[in-house]
Amino acid sequence: MKNDKLKNQYRVNEQIRAKEVRVVGDEGAQVMALRDALALAREQEVDLVEISPNAQPPVCRLIDYSKFLYQQKKRQKEMKAKQVKVEVKEIRFGPQTDEHDYQFKLKHAKEFLTDGNKVRAYVFFRGRSILFKEQGEVLLLRFANDLEEYGKVESMPSLEGKKMFLYLAPKKAGAAKKSQQKMDREKREAEAKTQEQQAHEEQIAATGGVFANMKGGDELLQKLKENPEE
Questions:
Q1: pLDDT > 90? residue 59
Q2: Burial group, residue 198, by CB count within 10 angstroms (0-12, 13-18, 19+)
Q3: What percent of the residues of the chain are helix, what percent strand, and what percent coil, each to the nearest 5?
Q4: CA distance 230 to 211
Q5: Contact criterion met (CB below 8 Å) for 130 and 159
Q6: DSSP tag of 10
């Protein structure tokens, strides 16, 4: 049905009703009788497509209509792919949420933001627990800080009735990717440094016996440990 709708969107060749049309091409525009425009289309082995029927006279192009439809469908798919549907996911806390529950909800929030969704986190104050609103605010601020690499704060914690809300929007994928690359690089550098230190210690252990038999060997060995580059 969608293909038929797109196909019937334009009048083509003998479907065009105007007596004269404005034919637009790479070399400019020219007004001519419909029969002459159709003859020109046949000569070039293309179609006469009416792209602006309400103009006076209607505007037409000489194009391969099948190729034109394919390009239109492709463009529509690309536009649809770019229209990412953003959902708002809710995370609910109590004013005295325990650490295990907090970490569980933090994990879900990271997944939501990574998927491109927004997060609305809130603390629900039941009954007299409204007295702990400062505690709820601290919890939401901690939540925002722990999600710093995944999302940005759209609005700071605010109390609405018995609920205190915090809104987070996902960061761009490129920023998250960059952050991950930085963490991976730091991890590799730390591992390389550890391996270098281990190799140095093994070298010291292997040569320890030699220094032990030398005059002042203990002092020299201790100096080598403190200054491995000397």
A1: yes
A2: exposed
A3: 55, 25, 20
A4: 16
A5: no
A6: S
The reported pLDDT for the residue numbered 187 is: 67
**Cα three-residue angle 162-167-171, rounded to 5 degrees:** 165
Tally DSSP H helices, then E strands, for the chain. 7, 9
Beta bridge partners of 93: 123
Higher pLDDT, 179 or 13: 13
- Find tokens 């009788």 and name the residue: 33
- For strand 151-160 and strand 88-93, is the pairing parallel, antiparallel, or unpaired? unpaired
CA-only gyration radius of the chain, Å: 36
CB contact burial 45-80 (16+ within 10 A = b; e otherwise)? ebbbbbeeeeeebbbbbbbebeebbeeeeeeeeeee
Tell me how far apart the alpha carbons of residues 167 and 88 are, in angstroms, rounded to a whole number. 9
Q: What are phi and psi of 210, to 5 degrees?
A: -65, -45
Is pLDDT at 146 greater than 90 in this prediction?
yes
The crossing angle, in degrees rounded to 10, of helices 133-146 and 99-114 is 50
Q: How far apart are CA 51 and CA 54, in angstroms?
A: 9
Place of tokens 């419909």: 34
